[in-house]
Every structure is written in structure tokens, then in C-alpha cells.
Automatic annotation (TrEMBL):
It is found in: Chromosome; Nucleus. Residues 12-69 form the ZZ-type domain. InterPro entries: ADA2-like_ZZ (IPR041983), Ada2/TADA2 (IPR016827), Homeodomain-like_sf (IPR009057), SANT/Myb (IPR001005), SANT_dom (IPR017884), SWIRM (IPR007526), TADA2A_B-like_dom (IPR055141), WH-like_DNA-bd_sf (IPR036388). GO terms for biological process: chromatin remodeling; regulation of cell cycle; regulation of cell division; regulation of transcription by RNA polymerase II. The gene is tada2a. This is Transcriptional adapter. CDD domains: SANT, ZZ_ADA2. It holds the Pfam family TADA2A-like_3rd. Gene3D superfamilies: 3.30.60.90, Homeodomain-like, Winged helix-like DNA-binding domain superfamily/Winged helix DNA-binding domain.
Length: 445
């Protein structure tokens, strides 16, 4: 097998001749006395008696050729290597392309030879059996499953889930494309020979050291992905959404430190802050009860029921104010009734602008947020802003997140940048920008 390792169809795969530096073609000569690196010569240099440093013309030699049968007559060693490379390139079963790439055998000959000698060969079966018996001793460092994921799914190639899993192959616990996937390219043409100068040898060793550092970084990233269970990203995101909004923001900020703390320590840190958030909310609720003079949980339930009734009455009064605003304009009143009917039917109403009446233009009334999606995610000040600006909560949350991300990326945000980022009315953009500045969510650049 050592002799077959250097043979191939492409002459550029072989090392050059040490005499004339031309690419070797079979047959060629290998010196049996020079070592440990091979001293190879073409037939022309060998017949001239080429000598170099320790190599002399009277040394023992070997004739290197692949023109001899290995597994069965009629198939040379070069053809055996060619069919293995063709099957690797074209795929198992694609015998028409395999035969076209080999050019010396037909489709039927390639199929029968490969099935007979590489699939149904009892010699290979016994070899695999012996390897299976010793797998505990030889393959202890094999594929490691991603434990936190509990057997990741195995999607088909190029599917949506496969792209979400970044090309992860669960059967091999590996990725189709590694981090720094072409790190080996800087190393593939390096060859250590005896006549290298000290500077050239040191340079080659430095390249090898750099390659080792890149491999360590690749393994470190894979270890972080494995330990934290990041391969099944959708499941990871679903678990993250179980936390309240404030804890999710903390989770996003502390994610970069997870690789330092470790998976268990990081999860304990997040869970402790989630518990702290729940305790603080419970303390605020108890303080509200104490401020209202409530001393028992039975009275607290009555208080909560009355509080909900009071909120409902406040919303009804707000709705009545909207009716009074629209009552003098028949067309505006019709639009308002259509919007309320859509809300009652569970349909998100279209945001319509109030047309000017016959008596002249007047300011639009505050937007009614009842039933609009995303309202429950807003605090009282944000609800008031959306009512005044007449902006639906879902759109406001998207604009707010976009401005926060841009401010975090640039370290500050100007009004002109905010207007270029969200394409809405400039007056609404200014009100949103001023509100976020006042609340401390963003800072001016």
C-alpha cells in the first residue's frame, strides 16, 4: 500500500525528479539506500548516473510502477486507484460517469469489479469485523453526540432545518463545513526535504504551528456548540422565549459570556435572575396591597377583581371619547364603526387617516389600542405614545428594536439616522426618537 499511495492518474500528484525537477511519469526510480525521505529519479537522470550529496550512482534502487495486477487480472494498480477516485467523485451507483472518468473500462466492468472486490469481498468483511472488535481501544475519541440536544434531528440535505443546523451531521457529530474551512490550503504544498536551509525549515515549521492554532480554535468553537446545545437552534430559541421580557434582554446581553462561565453555570445565572425578577414583581404587588390598606389575601382577590373592573370602565370611557370625537363627522364615524366591527371579529383593522370634514381640518383623535396585537407588551407611557402618534403597537415595537440595535452598534444615534432607518412620517419619527431618548433606551451620538 505504501507503493500505491503515490500513484494516480494526474502526473502533477507525484513529486518532481531530484535531478531535472520534471514531474515523474511511470516507470521511475526510487533509491533504496537514501532515506528517510524518498530520493526519486526519472529514467533519463538514472541512466546518466545522477549523483547528489549522499546519493551515489551505485546505490540499490527500485523500479516504481503501477502496471501490475492487485486484486484480479486485467485490473492494474493504477486502475484500482482510478476507480476508487471515480466512485468518490461521481458517487456510488453512478457507473456511467465512473466509466467515463476512467476511460479504460466499460460501465458493466466497473460495476462488477467494484461490487466483487470492494463490497462483497470476504477479506474486507473480516477486516471490518476485527476493527469492530477493537473499536473501544482504537476509537475512544470518536464522534461525541451533542448531549444537551437529546439526539438532534436528522434532516435531509439542503432542507430548511438542515440550513438552520448549519450543516450538522448527527451520525458523525461533525459539520459539512468547518470553521476556517480552508485552513489546510496553506499547508498542502509544504514538503520537508533534506536540502532545506535553516530559515526555510523554520518558516515551514511556523506555518505548521499556525495551522495547529487554527485547528485548536476550530475545536474550541465546536466544544462551545456541543456543551451549550446550540445545534438545535429552534429549540434553544423556544426555551429563551419562556422568560419574561426583562430576563430575555439580560439573556441577550449575557450570551457572550456563556462560553467563559460554562453551560451549567450560565443557566444557573439566568435562572437566578429570573427568580429575582419574579420575587421583585411579587414584592411590588404586596407593596401595592399594603399601600391600599389590604391585610389579607382574600381582600387582595377582591381588590384585583375591582381593579380589573375599573380598567374596563376606563377603556369604555376612552371609547366614548372616541365616539364623541367622531359624532359630528359622518364619514369618520362610519370608519370608526367599521374598525370596531373588525376588532370584535378578531381581525386587525387597517390604520386609516381621518379625512378633513366640511368645516375644516382638525387633529385626529387618539388611537384606540383595544384588541390590537402587541398592546400587552407596552407599558403605560408607551401606550400613551402609540395613542398620540396613532401607531399600532406591533409597528412601534419593530421600530424601537431597530433603533436600539443601531444605537448599540454605533454607540449613539442621531435623529437623521433614525429617519433613514424607519421610513415613516418625520414627525412620528421625531416623537418616537425623543421618547426613547427621554426614557433612556438610546443616547444621542
Amino acid at each position: 500500500m505504501e507503493r500505491l499511495a503515490s500513484f494516480g492518474n494526474d502526473p502533477f500528484d507525484k513529486p518532481p525528479c531530484r535531478g531535472c525537477s520534471s514531474y515523474l511519469t511511470e516507470p521511475y526510480i526510487k533509491c533504496a539506500d537514501c532515506g528517510p525521505s524518498h530520493f526519486l529519479l526519472c529514467l533519463q537522470c538514472f541512466t546518466r548516473g545522477f549523483e547528489y550529496k549522499k546519493h551515489k550512482s551505485d546505490h540499490r534502487y527500485e523500479i516504481m510502477t503501477s502496471d501490475f495486477p492487485v486484486l484480479e487480472p486485467g485490473w492494474t494498480a493504477q486502475e484500482e486507484m482510478a476507480i476508487l477516485e471515480a466512485v468518490m467523485d461521481c458517487g456510488f451507483g453512478n457507473w456511467q460517469d465512473v466509466a467515463y472518468q476512467m476511460r479504460t473500462k466499460t460501465k458493466e466492468e466497473c460495476e462488477s469489479h467494484y461490487m466483487k472486490n470492494f463490497i462483497n469481498n470476504p477479506l474486507f468483511s473480516s477486516t471490518l469485523l476485527s476493527l469492530r472488535k477493537t473499536k473501544d481501544s482504537h476509537f475512544a475519541e470518536g464522534a461525541v453526540p451533542f448531549r444537551p440536544c437529546d439526539d438532534p434531528p436528522r434532516p435531509t440535505f439542503d432542507s430548511v432545518m438542515s440550513r438552520d443546523m448549519a450543516g450538522y451531521m448527527p451520525a458523525r457529530a461533525d459539520f459539512m463545513e468547518e470553521f476556517d474551512n480552508y485552513a489546510e490550503w496553506d499547508l498542502k504544498d509544504i514538503d520537508f526535504v533534506d536540502d532545506d536551509s535553516d530559515i526555510l525549515r523554520a518558516l515551514k515549521l511556523s506555518v505548521v504551528d499556525i495551522y495547529h492554532s487554527r485547528l485548536k480554535e476550530r475545536q474550541r468553537r465546536k466544544r462551545v456548540i456541543r456543551d451549550h446545545g446550540l445545534i438545535n437552534l429552534r429549540k434553544f430559541q423556544m426555551l429563551e422565549r419562556c422568560y419574561p421580557k426583562e430576563v430575555q434582554e439580560l439573556y441577550e446581553a449575557m450570551r457572550r459570556f456563556a462560553r467563559v462561565a460554562g453551560p451549567m453555570e450560565h443557566d444557573k445565572f439566568i435562572e437566578s435572575h429570573a427568580l429575582e425578577f419574579e420575587l421583585r414583581r411579587e414584592i411590588r404587588r404586596l407593596q401595592e396591597y399594603r399601600k391600599a390598606g389590604i391585610k389579607s389575601f382574600c381582600s387582595a382577590r377582591v381588590y384585583e377583581r375591582v381593579k380589573r373592573m375599573r380598567e374596563d370602565e376606563r377603556r369604555k370611557r376612552t371609547m366614548l371619547c372616541d365616539v364623541l370625537h367622531y359624532i359630528n363627522d359622518g364619514r369618520a364615524c362610519q370608519q370608526w364603526l367599521s374598525k370596531q366591527a373588525a376588532i370584535d371579529a378578531g381581525i386587525t383593522p387597517a390604520v386609516t387617516t381621518i379625512t378633513p370634514s366640511a368645516t375644516g381640518r382638525r387633529s385626529a383623535p387618539p388611537l384606540n389600542l383595544t384588541g390590537l396585537p402587541g398592546t400587552e407588551k407596552l407599558n403605560e407611557r408607551e401606550k400613551e405614545l402609540c395613542q398620540v402618534v396613532r401607531l399600532v403597537p406591533g409597528a412601534y415595537l419593530e421600530y424601537k428594536q431597530a433603533l436600539l440595535n443601531e444605537c448599540r452598534r454605533q454607540g449613539g444615534l442621531r435623529l437623521a439616522q433614525a429617519r433613514a432607518l424607519i421610513k415613516i412620517d418625520v414627525n412620528k419619527t421625531r416623537k418616537i426618537y425623543d421618547f426613547l431618548i427621554k426614557e433612556g433606551h438610546i443616547t444621542k451620538a
